[in-house]
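Below is how a single chain appears once it has passed through the pipeline. First comes the sequence as given, then the structure the pipeline wrote out for it. We keep one example in the README because the format questions we get most often are answered faster by looking than by reading.
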Amino acid sequence: MTTLNTELRNFYEARQQDIPAEIREIMHRANRELADSGQADHALAVGAQAPPFSLPSATGHTVSLTSLLAEGPVVLTFYRGAWCPYCNMALRSLQQHHDAITARGAHLVAVSPQIPDESLTLTEKHDLAFDVLSDIGSDTARQYGLAFDLPDDLAAVYDKFGFDLQRVNDGHPRTLPLPATYVIDRNGTVRWAFTDTDYTTRAEPTDIIAALDTLH
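Resulting structure:
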């Protein structure tokens, strides 16, 4: 079976030829600067207590970490938004493994800075069976050490691509989360963590499931 990250890498390489060289350079430079910034070192790590949150879901109800943990462990994944094809590929892969996650008594929830309407569209398009939550302003992502601001030139590129982050992030167009996934036990302790400044790399669902298996 092809891994998620192999699919992501193949998509990335195929897409490069369609992006003008000057835009590729802006994107590559932003990636290098984010990697060199040490941002990933500030992200929540294994052994830490997961900060609580209460966030609106795509379907209009509020989901809290406390209520989820009362029922079992939580797989919490942060993504940039429905405009990001790498995020969509990662969420589709998680959906394919959703039964295996729930079979281990865990809840899967995804969090992005986009408005609920965007999350609802995403949920319906990809037939997602798990909650997709809206972290407007990235306050929760900030508590997890994941929030960062896009540099000016990359923000301009995203505008040129038509992503309209001003609208979909409800007036917070520059702030995004690093891609990250956490396995949190019922006591609220982070037992497994994946964080990367490279938005083309994501947690492998099989690794998440293996981490859940260690909780029993």
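The CA atoms of residues 4 and 204 lie 6 Å apart.

See the next section for the split statistics.
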